[in-house]
Fold each of these.
Amino acid sequence: MYKSRVFHLLFFVAVLQTVLALREGECEVCVKTVDKFAATLSDDVKKDPKLIEAEFKKFCKGTRNKENRFCYYLGGLEESATGILGELSKPLSWSMPSDKICEKLRKKDAQICDLRFDKQIDLNNVDLKKLKVRDLRKILNDWDEVCDGCIEKTDFIKRIEELKPKYMGRSDL
């Protein structure tokens, strides 16, 4: 009787762990950002949570878009309202995998796993006329360009076509 209860308890814990674990594609911004950040750390910094926190704040200064929002949620930016950097730095100092760190962060703040990277637009194979103005603006924003005086969709397309030769060699779009 006792063995049966222990078995059921262990089975329940295993099922619960499987349900709470991250699925493929969940927390993509968190996992990729934590991996990217961890790759920048030297071995001596990886052992000290306080140094990790200081390095994360430096790392966050150069982030944009979703990574910047992730930094905001953790408290890595000066304008962050809250800070849960300890939930990142301590597990990193223990060499915990990034997906497990993100599971712990999700328990503290679910918004962290709601972040998704924007879909990438392949300018070599896409018809700009079929894109929405929002997507055209995103292309220009990713290039750090503006379209002064652009009112209609054709204005945005014309500006992108003008800038295409300058940016098509870059791999970040």
Amino acid sequence: MKWSAEGPSRTTRTPAHNIVVPSTATDFPPDSSSSQLFGLLISESIKNKIISFTNQRLEMTREKYKRRNKPELKNIDALELDAFIGLLIFSAVFKSNDEDINALFATDGTGRDIFRAVMSKERFAMILLSLRFDDASTRDQRKQTDVATAIADIFSEFIANCQKYYKIGETTTIDEMLVSFR
């Protein structure tokens, strides 16, 4: 490789193997909301599986309580799952993803108000504890063939959605470094 203070010569033609041609990307309306675009990657099918498996776990947890109608033990629905995912993203964006739940929900002015506005601390903790991505009753037999069986089905669907809707470009940054590719 030869480094130069001047740019490349424009008198010679760029070799074809050095030209990156972007693949055709799915066109989205310019007024698409971020939640609509996020919904392409985390599809309704993925959400429904998470809701179903999480509700199975919540049902098992409810059996351990005398008072089974506590608000934090109720089944999760699509709206609440979206809210929960939103809080997790919010905590990551503001670098609070390693904070204690008590600190996030603190009422002394140090906590984040949005957490308390969306759901109670007890409900957040219960969803976090009960969140499941597969059917636990069949996990043992599936684990014999796939060590990542707890997330494999949803993960493969997520990867398929990423490949379908996200097209990598020539200026993509991966983990804060540029990786050359053709």
Amino acid sequence: MVLVLNGVLQDECIPLDTHSLFMQHPIYRDTANQLLSIPSKTVGPVGLLYVAQRELAAIAPHDKNVHIIGSDDATSCIIVVVRHSGSGAIALAHLDGSGTDEAVSTMVSRVQELALGYPEGRIELQLIGGFRDPQGYAEDLFSNIMQSFHKHPMEIDLTQACIGEVNTIVRGEINWPIIYGIGVNTRTGEIFPATFPDKGPDLCLRSARHFTGGHTVLDVYDSQLGMLRIGPFNYEPLRGVDLWLSQTDEFILQHLSTTPDVEPPHFVMQVRATLKFIQENQFPAITVFRENRPLYYRRDENSGLWSHVRY
């Protein structure tokens, strides 16, 4: 009994599908439409902390290294934002159904840690992305996320739910997501639709985890050090990677996407780059994370970009 919907503490019967949520609490349709009315921004890499699929990160508002935290390319995935209203501390995750319970617990814990010493406030939850996809992946994920937050001992206010039917538009008899990604201004907490052409360092390495069966949601930012942190992790060699790389773009799109009709244009190119990385790095514990050390990136003061550092 810890999810708060429209200001009311819920009993055991929380809405587990988006249609029921919008029917029982129409205010969420209104707040979603407000977000949908904001023009999408193309965000550059300076001051950006990009969170990829199956990753999370938490940021304090006074962090000089990060002005925008965000994620995109969410079709059947959902981007989750947890914010402490008193401090402005923010955690953001890009969830696909793997490791949800652990990710929810980590996000709330990180935000509470970053809120220490600030005025008291409430934990606010915002869910963005996911559309009415033909297989119902996003609906299952919404149910999964709602149950995870409802099990958490903290009271958590759902303040935004731009998901499911409200984030769906029909084009040529095909359902499409309206919002694929969002950015969050870490100073103000403002959320806006966004795309990120530059997704930060080592994207192929980061994407390789979920292509090879890594089920945890990786925390990619060390807020004490102010550094992007990747790994360490390992994965098993991907059987048939040479065969995958020899296939046509259409074959890869149809077989390696949950939503092939609505993927962004760069999807296949990114998949190929990731498969090539896996082919060349079959054991990242040896070739990438030497001595079991993470990869660290510090914000370069001159360029504003993430720069690899030995730490």
